[in-house]
């Protein structure tokens, strides 16, 4: 989602290389558009020991919390992407009503 459709591990040529990379402790870097809170959650999900990983309810709560923060921030800040016209999320929501 935060890679905007780009495949993960694009620089590794096959599943064997990906598995080897992961077994030696490698993991994805934080995508440019990924909030730090979400990336920290991702890293906790990648913990080797099962008991060190968050439970599903924790994941759900953390993701919901992060997106609520982002939604509040986006209501105040214009979205400015190269492929979009700057527009505020608040105006977009008003047009949907």
Automatic annotation (TrEMBL):
Gene Ontology CC entries for this record:
plasma membrane; receptor complex
Domain Serine-threonine/tyrosine-protein kinase catalytic: residue ranges: 1-61
Against InterPro entries, the record matches this protein to: Kinase-like_dom_sf (IPR011009), RTK (IPR050122), Ser-Thr/Tyr_kinase_cat_dom (IPR001245)
Instruction: Supply the Pfam families for this chain.
Output: PK_Tyr_Ser-Thr (PF07714)
Biological process (GO) annotations held by this record are: cell surface receptor protein tyrosine kinase signaling pathway
Molecular-function GO terms, alphabetical = transmembrane receptor protein tyrosine kinase activity
Q: What is this protein called?
A: Serine-threonine/tyrosine-protein kinase catalytic domain-containing protein
Species classification: Eukaryota, Metazoa, Ecdysozoa, Nematoda, Chromadorea
